C-alpha cells in the first residue's frame, strides 16, 4: 500500500519533469527558428545593396565611358543603405544581447515633445501636412525615464507618420493618468492592411502594400521602436485602416520626477 503510493508519487513527479523539459525544448526550438529566420532575412537584405555596388564598380572598371558621377551616386546610396542595415542590426543585437542600459533621466517632457514637433516641422510643411501636438492632461514638469530612448521612439513614430501620409495631418496626442502616459501618433495616411498589422513590428517587414514600398525604408524602425518601448517598461500598439490612416500608441510609465532638494527649496512653493 505505502510503497505503491510512493511509487505513484515518484511517477507523477517524473512525468511533470518530462513535460517541463519538453516545454523548455519547444521554447528553445522556437527561439532557434526565429533566429534562423532573422539571419536569413538579414543576409538577403545585405546582398542586394552589395550586388549593386559590385555591379557599378565593375561597370566603372571595364567601361571608361561609363559616367562616374552617376555610378558614384548609386554606389553611395547603396553604401548608405548598408550602413543603415548594419546600424539597425547592431542596435537590435545590443538590445537582444541584453547589453542595453536603461538610464533614469529627469526629462522635461513638454520640451521634449516640442522638440520632436520642431524637428519634423519642415518635412511636414513641405508635403503640406498639418503637424500638431495636443496635450490632453496635466503633465508634470519633469518625468523620469531614459530620454534618448523615449526620443528615439517618438522620432521613429512621427517620421513614419510623415513618410506614409501623402496629405492631411499628423497629430501627436498625449494623455496622462496615474503616472502612465499614452502618446498617440496618428495620421491620415495610406494605412496598413489588417493582415500586416502585427507583422510591421518584425525586423525587415515592410508590409504588403505597394504604396508603402514606394517609400524608402528597410523595415527596421518599428521593430527597434517596439523593443525600446518594452525596455522602458511600456509597449506599442497600432490601429489602422487602409486609405484612412494609422494610429500608433506608445503606453509608458512616466513617473513624475521629484525635484532635487535644492531645486525644491529655491523653486516653486
Ligand atoms: P520602414 O519604414 O523602414 O519600412 P518600419 O519598421 O518603420 O520600417 O515600418 C514597417 C512598415 O510598417 C512600413 O514599411 C510600412 O509598411 C508600415 N508603416 C509604418 N508606419 C506606418 C504609418 N504611419 N502608416 C502606414 N504604414 C506604416
Approximate strand percentage? 15-25%
Q: What ligand species are in this complex?
A: adenosine-5'-diphosphate
Content-based structural category: alpha+beta
Listing every helix as H and every strand as E from the N terminus to the C terminus, the arrangement reads HHEHEEHEEHHEEH
EC number: 2.7.13.3
Organism: Sphingomonas vulcanisoli
Catalytic activity: ATP + protein L-histidine = ADP + protein N-phospho-L-histidine
Protein name: histidine kinase
Could you explain how this protein is built, in words?
It is globular and about 95 Å long. It is of the alpha+beta class and 269 residues long. Helix 4 packs antiparallel against helix 6. It has 7 helices and 7 strands. 55% of the residues lie in helices and 17% in strands. A hairpin with a 2-residue loop joins strand 4 (169-177) and strand 5 (180-187). It binds adenosine-5'-diphosphate. Adenosine-5'-diphosphate (ADP) binds at residues 160-161, 164, 187, 189-192, 200, 205-207, 212, 217-223, 246. It catalyses: ATP + protein L-histidine = ADP + protein N-phospho-L-histidine. Residues 41-256 form the Histidine kinase domain. This is histidine kinase. It is an enzyme of class 2 (transferase).
What's the arrangement of secondary structure elements?
Blueprint: H1 2-62, H2 68-96, E1 105-107, H3 109-126, E2 130-135, E3 143-145, H4 147-163, E4 169-177, E5 180-187, H5 210-214, H6 221-231, E6 235-241, E7 245-253, H7 261-266
Parallel strand pairs: 2-4
Antiparallel strand pairs: 1-3, 4-5, 5-7, 6-7
The chain binds adenosine-5'-diphosphate.
Residues 160-161, 164, 187, 189-192, 200, 205-207, 212, 217-223, 246 line the site of adenosine-5'-diphosphate (ADP).
Organism: Sphingomonas vulcanisoli
Domain Histidine kinase: 41-256
Enzyme class: transferase
Amino acid at each position: 500500500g505505502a510503497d505503491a503510493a510512493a511509487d505513484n508519487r515518484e511517477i507523477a513527479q517524473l512525468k511533470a519533469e518530462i513535460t517541463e523539459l519538453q516545454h523548455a525544448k519547444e521554447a528553445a526550438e522556437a527561439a532557434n527558428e526565429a533566429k534562423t529566420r532573422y539571419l536569413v532575412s538579414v543576409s538577403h537584405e545585405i546582398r542586394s545593396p552589395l550586388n549593386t555596388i559590385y555591379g557599378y564598380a565593375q561597370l566603372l572598371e571595364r567601361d571608361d565611358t561609363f559616367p562616374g558621377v552617376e555610378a558614384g551616386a548609386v554606389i553611395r546610396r547603396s553604401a548608405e543603405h548598408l550602413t543603415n542595415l548594419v546600424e539597425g542590426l547592431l542596435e537590435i543585437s545590443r538590445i537582444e544581447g541584453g547589453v542595453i542600459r536603461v538610464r533614469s533621466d529627469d526629462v522635461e517632457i513638454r520640451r521634449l515633445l516640442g522638440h520632436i514637433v520642431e524637428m519634423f516641422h519642415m518635412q511636414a510643411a513641405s508635403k503640406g501636412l498639418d503637424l500638431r501636438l495636443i496635450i490632453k492632461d496635466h503633465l508634470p514638469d519633469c518625468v523620469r525615464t531614459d530620454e534618448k530612448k523615449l526620443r528615439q521612439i517618438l522620432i521613429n513614430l512621427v517620421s513614419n507618420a510623415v513618410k506614409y501620409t501623402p496629405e492631411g495631418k499628423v497629430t501627436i496626442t498625449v494623455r496622462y493618468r496615474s503616472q502612465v502616459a499614452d502618446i498617440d501618433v496618428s495620421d491620415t495616411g495610406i494605412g496598413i492592411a489588417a493582415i500586416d498589422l502585427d507583422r510591421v513590428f518584425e525586423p525587415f517587414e515592410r508590409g504588403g502594400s505597394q504604396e508603402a514600398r514606394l517609400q524608402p525604408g528597410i523595415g527596421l524602425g518599428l521593430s527597434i521602436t517596439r523593443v525600446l518601448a518594452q525596455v522602458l517598461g511600456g509597449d506599442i500598439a497600432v490601429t489602422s485602416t487602409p486609405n484612412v490612416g494609422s494610429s500608433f500608441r506608445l503606453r509608458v510609465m512616466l513617473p513624475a520626477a521629484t525635484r532635487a532638494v535644492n531645486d525644491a527649496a529655491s523653486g516653486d512653493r
